[in-house]
Structure formats: C-alpha cells, structure tokens
Amino acid sequence: MEVLRDMQIQGTKVPHLVILPLPFQGHINPMLQLATLLQSKGFSITLIHTHFNSPNPSNYPNFNFEPIPDGLSDSQLWTEDPVKILYFLNDTCQAPFHDRLSRLLSDGPVTCIITDEIFYFTKAVADQLKLPRILLNTGSATYATTTASLKLLQQNGLLSITDGQPNTLIPEIPPLRIKDIPDIGTTDPDTFEQLGANVLNAMRSTLGYIMNTFDDLESTALAKIRQDIHPMPLFAVGPLCKFSPGSSNSLLTQDYSCMAWLDKQAPQTVIYVSFGSTASFDKRNVVEIAWGLANSDQPFLWVIRRGSIHGHDQVELPEGFEEKTRERGQIVNWAPQQKVLAHPSVGGFWTHNGWNSTLESICEGVPMICSPYLWDQNLNARYVSHVWRVGIQLENGFDRSEIEWAIRRLMVEIEGKDIRERVRDLKENAMHCIEKGGSSYESLDGLVDIIMSL
Ligand code: UDP
Questions:
Q1: Which of 346, 350, 356 to mutate to test the pocket of ligand 1 (most atoms within 8 A of CB)?
Q2: Is the CB of 23 under 6 A from ligand 1?
Q3: How far, in Å, is the centroid of ligand 1 from the Cα of 341?
C-alpha cells in the first residue's frame, strides 16, 4: 500500500486494473464494490462492460468506462433459459473484449484483469494478450464447496439419496435436504453441466480467487476451498457491501420516498420485503403474500419490481388489501435496499436469500424470513435458518397463514428476540473482519500485494 501511495506522490503511473462484471445486478454490485475498494487503495480502474445492463458512469467519475456489444436481444431475455444466456454472453463477448483490451494496451500497460468467474471466455483472451487474470466469485463459499462435493459424490456413486422426498436430509452434506440442492431453473441440465466445466477449466493458471464472504461466517467452507478445490491464493474480502466505500450500482431507479415513510415508523417494527432482481411470481403467490402481510398486522415495506408478476405489467393487488393496510404499508418498485436495512425502523427482512441480500441483512443485524427461489438461494436459506440461525424459512412456498405466523414469530415472539441477538453477533463479527487486523482486511492487503508483485 505504501508503494502505491509513493507512486501517486511521485506522479509515477499507478497499476491499471481492467474489471469485467457479469451484467446482472447480483454480480455487478459486488464487482463494483470490489473495484471501488481497489481504487481507494490507489489502483486505476477501467471497467469494460456489456451494453446490456450497463452501469451508470456518472456514479463512478474516476473509473474509465469501456462498453462492448453483447448481441443480446430483448426477446432472448424474456424467453431464453438463464443458462443459455450465460453461454451466449460468453460467446458473443469474447471478440469485442479482446479488441477493447488490445486497444487499451496500445495506449498503455494493463496490470491485471479482474473478472467474474462465470465469464470463462476471458481465459483465452488473457492468454492471447499475456495478461494475468484474477477471478471474483460472487456467491457464498458454502455454495462453491457444496457443488464441488455433490459432483464428486455423484461421480463416485456415493450420494445416498433414497426416497427423493424434498425434506429428506442428505447425510453426506448436512444440514442440506434434497430441496436445498442448488437449483438453476434450467430446462437443459447438460448445457449447465458444460457451463460449469468451462468455468472450472478456465480457473487454471489464474493468479487468485476472490470471494465476497468473511472467515467468521464461512470458515469451514473457506478452509475446504483452500485445501481441496483451488490451488491458487484465495482472498475472502467480504462483506464487500460494508467494506467498500459506497456508491450506487443499482440498475433500476431506487425510490427514496420510502425512507421518509420509514422515518415515521416505530423502531424495529417494519418488515422489509424484497425478492431481488430476477425472481418472479404468479398472481396466486402475490395474493398470498399480500394477505399474509395484511393479516400480520405489522408495518411493511414491499418491493414489487415491475415485470416480476407473470403476465402482468401493472401491479394488481387483491380487493380490500389496500384498505386494510393503507395506514401501515408501503409498496415501491425498487428500494435503496442497503439504506432500508440500515434504517432503525426495520426489524425484519423477508428475502429470497440472494447472496448479496443475505450479506446485507447480516451486516445491518436484521433477522430474515427466507423464501428462496433459484440458484444458490435454497442453500443460503438453509444456512441462514439452520446453521447461523438468524432467520426462519417458509417451507411451503407462499401460504398466507404460514406467512402471518412467520412474521409474528420473527417480529413479536420471544423466538424473534433470540434470532435478533444472534444476527447482531454476526454483524459484529463481520465488522471485525473488515477492521485493521481483521481477516478480510488482511486478505485485501494480500490481494493488493499480489497485484503489486506483477
Ligand atoms: N436491491 C436493491 N433494491 C431492491 C432490491 C434489491 O438495490 O429493491 C439490490 C440488493 O441490495 C442486492 C441486489 O439488488 O445488492 C440483489 O442481489 P442478490 O444477490 O440479493 O439477488 P439477485 O438479484 O441476484 O437475485
């Protein structure tokens, strides 16, 4: 770090990092948080990004933004299997990324590429241009170890799943049940398998592996990754949402009017409801959510993202709902989530357990109600409710009585008090990790050192 500061003082060219995020909200956020953190250490940053879901340059006046075409059409986004979209992007982005990077290199040196691990095509480009590459994994360490363990067990015929019932525990990977196994919502498991193999293949000869987690939360999984999975240096620098000096990475406009509404609510009474940037629901689910919230008698702030209700462009809520909740409910299209979770009125977060939302909730000491939807969310929800014990999982989808009961358990009953205490402890641990001398702080120093050694 001293070296970087000296270089700036002497006017020497500082090391230049090229950053490439995967263009989805849950991937863009941690990547831009990481880039901001590295810039605060003195690196110069160029962000190469797809036209699709491009971040707003005015939020990052000190980054150099370089757009590349991705060839993705609107109709593909609405109809295509998510795994096929990832495949498609890996295909279409390779040539433009190569061209853009070559042009940057003709203007001056690039020290290193930092890319989302799912962009496996970057290995070929980095090899051609003889540039080192570091990967960011935006999920949990437990997700990474579980998928690796599952694959190994399956290959060796050692997975003893007997009855196929969703609630059956899998003895080899406790406390996970069949229904907690990562679900990628694909209609094409072979393509997914191939995508995973490509990602794994492209990990070879990378300089380092960055994870958005912290030692006190996932020490076992991190130790396993260090020992068994990745032979390269691992840097657990999370929670990035707290570690990085904040700027907004939101692709949708965040509605700040809800902050004034929160100011009027009593401390720790509001349940904040949001299911992230990609989850979608049918009308029946929305009706159950609405009546669950209405019948709980608790104030709520509910994010209903435009387009998240199947077949409905506009939000239509059941008759009588508005009348019953007018005094204590607020609905927005998209919220400033981190600020909402940090607000003293918020006492619970009903979430889909995307990894960013899960970390953000822990970082603000807010206990959770878990309704996982896809990908790694089932596994995250299981860890939240049964390992860290900082939340309650809704086990039967969306049912108004179960929702009402879960909200009461979390917000009013003694059980909720214990959960709240545990999440506050976790929050403290997270804060220690990012302080000087903490594990994430040290990891970040290690990452800076390895880049400086190039
Ligand atoms: N988010 C937000 N406003 C909202 C809902 C979500 O800014 O109303 C942000 C949230 O803070 C998080 C991200 O969107 O950083 C969602 O990422 P996550 O991994 O939780 O879920 P995903 O969207 O990838 O399913």
A1: 356
A2: no
A3: 12
The more confidently predicted of residues 417 and 3 is 417
Atom of ligand 1 nearest to the CA of 351: 20
Nearest C-alpha to atom 1 of ligand 1 is from which residue? 337
Match domain 257-431 to its CATH number in 3.40.50.2000, 3.90.550.10, 2.30.30.100, 3.40.30.10: 3.40.50.2000
pLDDT of 178 = 85
Residue with token string 């822990």: 362
Q: Is the CB of 360 under 6 A from ligand 1?
A: yes
Residue-wise pLDDT tens digits, 258-275 = 999 999 999 999 999 999
Per the CB < 8 A criterion, the answer to whether 406 and 369 are in contact is yes
Cβ–Cβ under 8 Å, residues 171 and 244: no
pLDDT at 173: 85
Considering only residues 164 and 327, tell me which one the structure prediction assigns the higher pLDDT.
327
Cβ(280) to ligand 1 under 6 A? no
Q: In 3D, which of 99, 124, 118 has the Cα closest to residue 48?
A: 99
CA-CA distance, 103 to 32, in Å (whole number)?
23
CA distance 395 to 370: 9
The domains of the chain are located at 2-249+436-452, 257-431
Testing ligand 1's pocket by substitution, the residue of 140, 337, 340 carrying the most ligand atoms inside 8 A of its CB is: 337
What gap in Å lies between CA 348 and CA 296, rounded to an integer?
13
Distance CA 369, CA 298 (A): 14
The CATH class, in words, for 2-249+436-452 is alpha beta
CB 412 within 8 A of CB 404: no
Joined tokens for residue 175: 């406390």
Centre of ligand 1 to C-alpha 277, Å, is 6
* Ligand 1 neighbourhood includes 277 CB (under 6 angstroms): yes
